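Work package 3, deliverable 3.1, input record:
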Amino acid sequence: MQIQTCFSPSQYHLFNTENTIVVVIDILRATSAICTGFEYGVSKIIPVATVDEAKEYKSKGYLVAAERDGKIVEGFNLGNSPFDYMNKDLKNKTIVISTTNGTQAIHVAREAYKIVIGSFLNITALANYLVSENKNVLMLCAGWKNKFNLEDTLFAGALSQKIMQSKSFTTECDSTFAAMHLYDLAKEDLFAFLEKSSHRNRLKNLNLEKDINYCLTPDSCSAIPVMVNNSIVKLQPVLS
Amino acid sequence: MQIQTCFSPSQYHLFNTENTIVVVIDILRATSAICTGFEYGVSKIIPVATVDEAKEYKSKGYLVAAERDGKIVEGFNLGNSPFDYMNKDLKNKTIVISTTNGTQAIHVAREAYKIVIGSFLNITALANYLVSENKNVLMLCAGWKNKFNLEDTLFAGALSQKIMQSKSFTTECDSTFAAMHLYDLAKEDLFAFLEKSSHRNRLKNLNLEKDINYCLTPDSCSAIPVMVNNSIVKLQPVLS
């Protein structure tokens, strides 16, 4: 099985995605928030690409999360801080979510065999799942406005290393090699490594240190969010 | 002055290129071949994007280099091995060149303030020039068919580190941080670091070990190729 890494949604079309599970990655903070939501009992998340679509859902009475440039869009219920989703009132609720980069990534991959949502929060559960599925894997980094970013790349490297512990995975993809090398350099202290990164600084200006620390902490969640019919739901364990 | 790094010609439009010198990078092997050509006395290189354009020039009697997928296109005079250009018969000649990735990169950047050609072969001369110019710098990696590749990224990291020794340069760009980190990991033995990379393997199959070794060797050239009116010429030293 092959692992590939795509650094930007705008490059997705360059990859062979046949028989491939796409892992959508938007560490700061959309995919971290989505994993947290399912861990806290949210039943369904509907990703939309634009704030206008989100508004339409809001007018129909949906609970709607919308974030642009790191901030909650005025008039909406939630942003994409994982802490917004640690709320027992959200249990069994459906949430509509539109974010700067994360939902765009989900959107470009909509024809894939399967789309799952990755973050450091669910990395081990997700790695175990991918190994059990035995399909090719494409790490799809949401990036920042279609540009490369470091935090999504580090996660792609971390997850690639984890699944390559199973000998059934290999890679011939330069972006995956780069991501794994960068993760090796960063893994002792991800927070410090990202200190100088562009998005880290963007969020620092918004006082989101607590969010960033949480988003870089592995394995606080076991839920694996998966796309089914244009919505994200929690993957149900297969009973053996 | 800001340094940015673009990993693919297809992402060039995402970058702010105002007041910016664009360094086109296609280490294996177009920009290495171009630098070598000027060092050996070529007077002008005309880059074209397609093999058809190259054929048209050939029919007009031009000396034409065309490479696709690492091989000389049938019927053409030269490929993009630097060794093809170490030929005294090329002195004062004009060469038309079309390659898989390099000329595409030059093409997308055609509106830039200035385009220069970078390779390990002229890295120190080029760094000195960029520091003296005091403009923003965009490292434009040609990549492989619009995907990220390691060898162009390593050069972008090496050149960024060199010009940042001058305190007038800084960066806020995640791709530049990544490129510099990767170069730090690789610099003791670039050849070994690239051992597993995708393009390295592609060329290995074509028996191009000697080319690769040469392309990774710094400072065998002092020429700085620069675009002037759709052609590449050797930058003339300014007499002080």
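Strands of chain A lie at 3-6, 20-25, 44-47, 63-68, 71-72, 94-98, 114-118, 136-141, 225-228, 231-234.
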